[in-house]
Design a protein that fits this description.
Layout: E1 3-6, E2 15-19, H1 30-36, E3 42-45, E4 49-51, E5 54-56, E6 60-62, E7 65-66, H2 68-89, E8 96-101, H3 103-114, E9 121-125, E10 143-149, H4 157-169, E11 173-179, H5 187-201
Parallel strand pairs: 2-3, 2-8, 8-9, 9-10, 10-11
Antiparallel strand pairs: 1-3, 4-5, 6-7
Helix pairs in contact: 2-3
The structure holds D-malate.
D-malate (MLT) binds at residues 21-22, 60, 63-64, 102-103, 106, 128, 154.
Length: 204
């Protein structure tokens, strides 16, 4: 997968796995990583699917309707890529925290839905429920920050609450940050996620 890797200066910090939104690329979220933890190593990946020229992490049949078969295939593809990247770049595979926005948050959520120990934690900006009706792996001890907009036309508040219930049902600790905005990523939620990251991973 196309990607950027930047070595960190803080060897104890989690490596940040950056996952862009639809139409984005591996450079989009790099400034966020610097705000979340400047010393962290960064692995930023570009989605392998193109929708009218726009990179995504998996296909969709319509807005909000995912191609489930492709989602499963792409989630495995990403999980395998992470295993290889950890060997190539010598970062701790067990200390990887996803930071994803929109479509990137959805594949990040899908990693957590499908693979135990895929991630040590996650910051998911405006995620949806990636799949329904499947048992989740044990997510005990996995901290997850979710941000949501009460006026988000792509992810209605009930879907955020459903996602929170599913994650918590699997044992994860979830913090949901609400704002009265839509689907856009705001500076406020990035600040809230940075503070959460510092507290959660003890990176004062
Ligand atoms: C998706 O397809 O993953 C969601 O609708 C979010 C987006 O617009 O990318």
């Amino acid at each position: 997968m196309k990607h950027v890797f930047r070595k960190g200066t803080d060897p104890n910090a989690p490596t940040l796995l950056l996952l862009h939104g639809t139409g984005g690329n591996e450079n989009d979220l790099l400034p966020l990583a610097a705000r979340i933890h400047p010393g962290a190593a960064v692995l930023s990946v570009r989605g392998n699917v193109l929708e009218n020229g726009m990179p995504r992490f998996f296909r969709r049949l319509a807005e909000g309707v995912f191609d489930e078969e492709d989602l499963i295939f792409r989630t495995k593809e990403l999980a395998d890529f992470l295993d290889q990247a950890a060997i190539e770049y010598e970062f701790d595979r067990d200390n990887l925290v996803a930071v994803g926005y929109s479509n990137g948050a959805n594949i990040g959520g899908s990693l957590l839905f499908h693979y135990r120990d895929a991630l040590r934690g996650a910051i998911l900006y405006h995620p949806m429920v990636p799949r329904r009706g499947i048992p989740l792996p044990d997510l005990s001890g996995v901290p997850i920050f979710v941000s949501a907009g009460t006026n988000d036309p792509i992810c209605p508040p009930q879907e955020t609450e459903e996602l929170q219930r599913l994650f918590e049902g699997a044992g994860a600790s979830v913090l949901v940050h609400w704002a009265s905005y839509g689907h856009q990523l705001t500076g406020m939620e990035v600040d809230a996620s940075s503070e959460w990251f510092r507290k959660t991973f003890d990176q004062e």
